[in-house]
Design brief:
The structure is a single chain. The chain has 459 residues and is α/β, with parallel strands linked by helices. The protein folds into 3 domains: 79 residues, no CATH class; 204 residues, Leucine-rich repeat, LRR (right-handed beta-alpha superhelix); 137 residues, no CATH class. Helix content is 32%, strand content 16%. It has 15 helices and 13 strands. The strands form 2 sheets. Strands 1-2-3-4-6-8-9-10-11-12-13 form an 11-stranded parallel sheet, sandwiched between helices. α4 packs antiparallel against α5. The N and C termini lie far apart (52 Å).
């Protein structure tokens, strides 16, 4: 649709349209529709999309826009190179050559995505990435590494290397972390469905980015856990402490479908600096991970937030297994109970992981169970509530948020059910509901096409 709108002013051939704009002395074509360049630029800006699938398709349209005329070229190139998606080594080498031939394009790149099925093969482009792009991306802010699994049929395999040998885990060069550290401006790292040979490889990648503030991991595995890396060990004696703490600028940490042992290590190492933590429940136990050299001081029970002295928000993604798994509720309560009240405001966000796994009533029932745990926790860990709804002076102030994605016609139904889940808690804490329409298919409930029941009335 957007590409059609962009073609409205150009009813004649591209050569005639280009000549009409580039040459101020050209006679305007009375039969051609003319819009201000600003209007076209606003439409071009709409071609940026968050989902990878849409971004790849929009890139083709932006390529065409950049070739239309000089007036469109700069804006199209800025959008085209703002977020770059690379699928294999060939694409990486071609992108590097493009930057060499057009140095002005280096300033446009802010987001870089490496995705495909070749990441776990001998033709993996990841180790070559920081070498091929060394010194060429001065404004790069985010790096996304997304392995496409074999069972995902939405991704075209036409460009995949047929001669590449499949591997169990990500093949990284021994000095990869050193090369990766050259990306000194990267503040966000997003990793999806990757398997590392050793937890230490995973930790070195994180620690190599000096400006990293946000880490998102979903489906990240390690073949071997191994001993705790030196710079992640508790620093009881500052004399023997490493010169630089682990990921010193990391503030936001999201760990979904990551083994509980890895979660514990990262939370413990980064806890004193974290402001936002995202975890999924029940916690994931990777039964295939080798625990060779596994330290006896660690356990697989849950997450300890006692070291998170600056943490003011915890997002908890609830899976359907949380309903039947009694141990999950104990871990849920223990985790929040370990969260100290040093910060003046403690935000707890609850949401489904993901909506397509639940029917609406099933998730509402799960919220009722979580609500009882939260009520008991807040009431027994705090002084009596004040008149304005805040807890006493000895405790922190809690805010409970329920994040929901659904159609507007379901808003009242959700509000009614959520209020039933937190009857007591609403009097001693701030309680709010975030309600947004579902943006993607995985945000749609199993009974998404149903209509809310009509309330019965009595006379």
């Amino acid at each position: 649709m957007i590409s059609r709108l962009l073609c409205i002013p150009w009813t004649h051939s591209r050569r005639q349209a280009t000549r009409a704009i580039d040459d101020d002395r050209a006679h305007p074509d009375r039969n051609a529709s003319r819009f201000p360049v600003e209007v076209c630029e606003n439409i071009i800006d709409m071609l940026y999309s968050f989902p990878i699938m849409d971004r790849v398709e929009n890139a083709r349209t932006l390529h065409r826009c950049a070739l239309v005329c000089r007036a469109w070229r700069v804006r199209s190139q800025r959008n085209l190179f703002y977020s770059v998606v690379l699928h294999n080594i060939e694409a990486l080498q071609k992108f590097s050559a493009v930057l060499d031939n057009g140095p002005h394009l280096c300033e446009y790149v802010h987001q870089l995505t490496l995705m495909g099925r070749t990441l776990h093969t001998t033709a993996s482009p990841l180790s070559l990435l920081p070498i091929a792009l060394h010194g060429k991306l001065p404004k790069l802010q985010e790096v996304t590494i997304n392995r496409v699994r074999e069972d995902e049929d939405w991704y075209s395999s036409a460009s995949e290397s047929e001669s590449a040998k499949s591997l169990q885990y990500l093949p990284l060069h021994p000095r990869f972390a050193l090369y990766f550290s050259a990306f000194t401006t990267v503040s966000g790292l997003y990793i999806f469905d990757l398997t590392f040979g050793h937890f230490n490889d995973f930790a070195r990648m994180i620690n190599s980015l000096p400006a990293l503030r946000r880490l998102v991991c979903n489906g990240v595995r390690c073949v071997t856990l191994g001993p705790l890396p030196f710079n992640m060990k508790p620093r009881a004696d500052w004399i023997h402490a490493p010169a630089r703490p682990f990921a010193p600028n990391l503030r936001e940490l999201s760990l979904l479908k990551v083994d509980i042992h890895c979660v514990q290590r990262l939370v413990s190492a980064c806890g004193p600096r974290l402001s936002n933590l995202v975890v999924g429940m029940p916690f994931f136990n990777d039964t295939e991970m080798v625990l060779l050299g596994y330290p006896t001081t660690e356990h697989s029970g849950g997450v300890d937030l006692s070291l998170c002295s600056t943490l003011d928000r915890v997002d908890i993604f609830l899976e359907p297994e949380s309903v039947t798994d009694g141990q999950t509720l104990d871990q849920f309560k223990a985790m929040l109970n370990s969260w100290g009240s040093d910060v003046p405001l403690q935000n707890v966000h609850l949401r489904a992981y993901y909506e397509h796994k639940f029917a609406r009533q099933a998730f509402a029932d799960l919220l009722g169970t979580a609500g009882r745990v939260l009520e008991a926790l807040v009431i027994h860990s705090s002084a009596p509530p004040c008149a304005d709804g805040e807890v006493g002076e000895q405790g922190g102030r809690w805010e409970i948020w329920i994040d929901l994605y659904d159609w507007e016609v379901w808003r009242d139904w959700w509000r009614t059910h959520v209020q039933k889940c937190f009857l007591t808690l609403g009097k001693s804490a701030e309680f709010r509901m975030n309600f947004n329409p579902p943006r993607y298919n995985w945000y749609k409930w199993q009974d998404s096409d149903a209509l809310p029941p009509i309330p019965t009335t009595t006379t």
